[in-house]
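Need tokens for this chain, all 278 residues.
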Amino acid sequence: MDVIKKYKTGTIITEIVMIVAGLIFLVPFYFLLVNSVKSFGDLLSNTAGLPESFQWSNYSRAFELTNFPSAIWNSTVITVVSNVLIVMISSMAAYRMVRSNTKFNRILFVVFVSAMVIPFQSIMIPLVKVTSTLNLMNSIPGLIVAYLGFGVPMSVFLFHGFVKSIPLEIEEAATVDGTNAYGVFFRVVLPLMKPMLVTVFILNMLWIWNDFLLPSIMLQSPDLRTIPIATSAFFGQYTKQWDLALPSLVMGILPIIIFFLFLQKYIIEGITQGAVKG
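Here are the structure tokens for all 278 residues:
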């Protein structure tokens, strides 16, 4: 009886702590949502309180000034295409490195891992020179190629460790049944990699969607601006238009929230399967 009582007491305390922690994490969203519908003066004088009058026109003005349809289209294309290519290339590369354990593949894997520790700031100037020489500057395909270079090393590292946990006997059985090498990967191995596919997709999606530095370097045309770059236009050297920047931020994070709401079943399933397999 005492054990059950202690267990219940401990569970209640844990739940209370988690609820409080969750509310603390939601505080920034409260400030973001509440201040996005305030006038500029009300925002500066009463940051934490509710608005005196709801300025819904902030959203329409921000929508127009940022050319939001173009910005969200650019961000979506860049994020989706880059993510799909990163996932496919890195999963196939990692699978080949694990199953063909040659000296060359081991060296290649070390090169991929080493690329993860190179600071982005140290290669900014060479990146601009190379992309300019290849006529990749100021273009969405050029930015996607750059994201491949930065995203594949970490993804290969994650897939490499996961492929090792897949039993080789399953692939041998498929080979005996007459499946070729591509069939073994796409029909047998790739479905088993679903937990890691979900993990890599989420990590890269959050990184690419919210990235500011790389698009700001490679995209100069206003028509090619992503959401972070479009939002940064409200922050100048002498002025900061918070009444327009905050609605832009709300509209920018809304697609990510919708993504998680629609795919939360698969995200949770991927996390739990990864925990069991690990």
